[in-house]
Write a structure and sequence with these properties.
The complex is a heterodimer of chains A (about 575) and B (about 100). Chain A is of the alpha/beta class and about 575 residues long. Helices cover about 20% and strands about 10% of the residues of chain A. Chain A contains 20 helices and 20 strands. With about 100 residues, chain B is α+β, with helices and mostly antiparallel strands. Classes of the chains: A alpha/beta (about 575), B alpha+beta (about 100).
Amino acid sequence: MGGACSRKRDQQANDANINRGVSGRYTKSGSSKWLGGSFSRASMDSSQGKQRCPTLMDLCIYKIREDINKYGTFSMLPRDITQQIFDDLVCSQCLTDTLLEAFRDCALQDLNLGEYPGVDDSWLDVVSSQGSSLLSLDLSGSDVTDSGITYLKDCKSLQALNLNYCDQISDKGLEQVYGLSNLTTLSFKRNSSITAKGISSLSGLIKMVKLDMERCPRIHGGLAHLKGLEKLEMLNVNCCNCITDADMKAISGLTRLKSLQIASSKVTDNGVVFLRDLKNLSLLNMEACPVTAACLESLSGKFLGALQYLNISRCDLKDNGCENFSKMQSLKVLNLGFNDISGAILVHLKGLINLESLNLDSCRIKDEGILYLAGLTRLKFLELSDTEVGSSALRHLSGLVNLENLNLSFTVVTDGGLRKLSGLSSLKSLNLDARQITDAGIAALTSLTGLMHLDLFGARITDSGTNYLRAFKKLRSLEICGGGLTDAGVKNIKDLTSLTLLNLSQNSLLTDKSLESISGLTQLVSLNMSNSRVTSAGLRHLKSLKHLKSLTLESCKVTANDIKLLQSTDLPQLVNFRPE
Amino acid sequence: MKKEDTVMLISAEGFEFVIDKKAAMVSQTIRNMLTSPGGFSETEHGKVTFPEISTTILEKICQYFYWSLQYASGKETEFHIEPELTLELMMAANYLHT
């Protein structure tokens, strides 16, 4: 009980982030990234079929929301019930500063007000009236200032405090946190006021387990005050470009650390040496740090025997020194993208049999070396985008039967090589965004019936190629934007009813007839048909797409008003559309 | 209706509601009482007493049980709750895990 909506108490970097590492680069599909959360929710709804019967509790909560103005206080209710009423009001965005008064002295445990509109210092009085019952408080994105934080001194039991994006909080605000000795989680991302002085106020919070200071550009020298936080397991100073080697020295004794994120800092090889004693370190993110392969010595199993996740992309790695990778036996996730390394280093990875994810995006990899990946049979995720890997390398991947996600975009792989992938029955996501891929390539892949995501953005797919797509009944996302499709081809995908994302932009021959074929794809959340001959008259075919949240029809004979009309009459769910 | 297919729910004031066992089982709490091995002594006779639930509220709850069965069978009507009952009903719903 407690978590409002889908909010989570802690919002630390997750494995997916590490896996992807550099995903933001693909702007063409970037537009759909923000829909990430809604996709999973949409798919959940559909899997449940019809709506679940509301419980009596649900019905009572709705009723209270309806009559909320009639309630002066909820303090006579048991706490767990009040919590549900509170969470419902937050979730439905019905809570106001006036209504908040009814929750005074309710002994609530969780106040998840993150990103809630209108939260400012005036809310903190009722917040603090929860007293020692309050365990977690999320004020992220609010207008709360230093003086608002002074109210929290009575909330002695507070374990988790989230002040992300609260740009009116400074060192003075952190001073008020000083007495909250039960804090285990504290987060104040993107704060440009807080300095080392503010962090010195945290030195006595010895129960601290997770500390997140991402994007705080002025905290240089502050990590020295964390020396006594011996229970600290997670520290995030990503994108704090003031962090230097000296700061690494300051945390070298925090041996409980499991996760350390120092991406885009000034830490060099000399700083990494100070991390040698962090025996429990499982995750290290050094993306875009000025480190070279020389730092790998400090990270090898001799020192960091528990290291499972390493992001060392966009650094200054060269081939020389990469032999130390062979001593990182515990690695599960390795991101080496955007380094000046060649396929010659792959020989050092061949013994890393625990590897599940490998990212070599934009490295100087050719076919040589790929054979050393053949034995990494636990691999689930392999990113080879923007490398010079070609067809002859693919035979070495044919035995990676656990592979779920393979990216071969902008490689030199051709149709002839793709049949080597036909046995990869675990594949769920395949990116073949490369100009030389044609219909023949797809024909070789029809055995991959588990595919859920297929990106053929720039591939030269024609109508005859779309016949083969019928094999991929589980497809959730599909992009074919090579310009070769006509309405006849789109007809072939009308039975792919699991699709939630469809991008058929740049196919300039498509007309309203294609929209008609698409009208049965009722799970669609995002549709892009830009640069086609679609007209406003065709929009009526989209009325059945009740889950659609994003519709992009740039450079079509459709105006913003046409779409707005459709939105108001039939598609209230639509939140993002172009032209706008 | 066979006796074993029904249960008797007794309110704080001693008012008796005889309803289908199937309806009563909408409540997770009652379901546990009726199905747990060994059982609760009072449920062996198909009677459950709720000393903290008033007659008005228990009646409303029985209505909900039947409404819920209808809803599950596809008849999605609205369930009306009188504003003055909401809080008390909510506490009972919480107890009955309904």
